[in-house]
């Protein structure tokens, strides 16, 4: 497929679900001639090459010198170390962008590490699954989804245009947003739900009144609700640590709501329970 956007060589640093899926999407859109893969996990890289997610395995960071655009897609707390390792080898004028789920903390750590020769565009695709690694990647992950870019004062406008076009080629609508607003919105609509799902699975899993593991009796509802609790622990540890303030605020709001619900159950307040469930149903139905 011919695409007006042409980036001769793209490098993916961290060839997992997010990095691998962008590689496949860009290949499918005909945006690039060659995709390089760099990752600490050699087995994952071998699988990525075998599956055609990448065209070349970089045996060291020096091989990234050919890249015109580098997509950093490691867990967020691994990004500074990854950038320190690769930055000296990247070519002048190359564009660095990332897909980290938290933006303000990532920007504040990455920007001071950036050599002047690199142009950095922070970003976050709002799509994913609970699976990880190159074997989880698929070309249509970003189709019909949104990608938020959070440019800073230092972001080069041409680099921003190019990264915008890149995500559009992958099928996403691009939205520009301030990093702090991004982090607060994501704390509410993504990070809090993951914390609740993890806590729910652990609370129910620890229920020990009966000898058997009662999770084995779970059916559709529990499994739908807790799908995201199968997500990668390293990734979520890093998100919880780097978006603490916004996430704590959302957890506190959630605790207030849950306490109200508990009180209505404790006092057998049928009208309160009905109106609570109705308000929730209307809110959710409205977004579908
Ligand atoms: N999974 C999601 O739903 C989702 C959605 C949007 C954004 N994100 C963000 O995308 C990033 C990647 O997530 P993912 O789900 O693709 O994770 P993943 O576990 O599938 O892939 C991450 C890869 O990074 C590699 N890696 C770790 N440290 C490295 C380093 N220092 N140098 C090179 N490679 C390194 C790992 O070996 C792994 O292959 C994270 O920052 C995450 O917050 C994830």
Give an account of the 3D structure.
The protein is an alpha/beta fold and about 290 residues long. The chain folds into two domains: about 5-175, NAD(P)-binding Rossmann-like Domain (Rossmann fold, 3-Layer(aba) Sandwich); about 180-285, 6-phosphogluconate dehydrogenase C-terminal fold (Orthogonal Bundle), CATH 1.10.3660.10. Helix content is about 50%, strand content about 15%. The chain contains ten helices and nine strands. It has helices at about 15-30, 40-50, 80-85, 105-115, 155-170, 180-205, 220-225, 235-240, 245-265, 270-285, and strands at about 5-15, 30-40, 55, 70, 95-100, 120, 125, 145-150, 175. The protein has a six-stranded parallel sheet with strand order 3-2-1-4-5-6, sandwiched between helices. The protein has a three-stranded mixed sheet with strand order 7-8-9, with helices on one face. It is elongated. The model has no long low-confidence stretch (mean pLDDT about 95). Nicotinamide-adenine-dinucleotide binds near residues 18, 75, 76 and 239.
């Amino acid at each position: 497929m011919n695409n007006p956007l042409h980036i001769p060589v793209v490098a993916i640093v961290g060839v997992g679900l997010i990095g691998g899926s962008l590689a496949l999407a860009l290949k499918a859109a005909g945006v690039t001639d060659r995709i390089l893969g760099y990752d600490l996990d050699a087995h994952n890289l071998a699988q990525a090459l075998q599956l055609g997610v990448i065209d070349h395995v970089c045996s060291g960071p020096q091989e990234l010198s050919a890249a015109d655009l580098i997509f950093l897609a490691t867990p967020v707390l691994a990004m500074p170390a990854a950038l320190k390792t690769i930055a000296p080898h990247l070519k002048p004028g190359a564009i660095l962008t990332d897909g980290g789920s938290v933006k303000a903390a990532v920007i504040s750590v990455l920007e001071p590490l950036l050599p002047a020769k690199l142009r950095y565009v922070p970003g976050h695709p709002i799509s994913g699954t609970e699976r990880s690694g190159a074997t989880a990647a698929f070309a249509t992950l970003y189709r019909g989804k949104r990608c938020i870019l959070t440019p800073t004062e230092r972001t080069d406008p041409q680099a921003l245009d190019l990264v915008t076009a890149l995500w559009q080629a992958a099928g996403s609508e691009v939205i520009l947003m301030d990093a702090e607003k991004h982090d607060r919105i994501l704390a509410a609509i993504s990070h809090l739900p993951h914390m609740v799902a993890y806590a729910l699975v652990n609370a129910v899993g620890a229920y020990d009144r009966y000898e058997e593991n009662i999770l084995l009796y779970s059916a559709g509802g529990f499994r739908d609700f807790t799908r995201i609790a199968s997500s990668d622990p390293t990734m979520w540890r890093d998100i919880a640590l780097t978006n603490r303030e916004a996430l704590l605020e959302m957890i506190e709001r959630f605790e207030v709501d849950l306490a109200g619900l508990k009180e209505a159950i404790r006092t057998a307040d049928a009208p309160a329970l009905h109106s609570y469930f109705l308000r929730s149903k209307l809110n959710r139905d409205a977004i579908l």
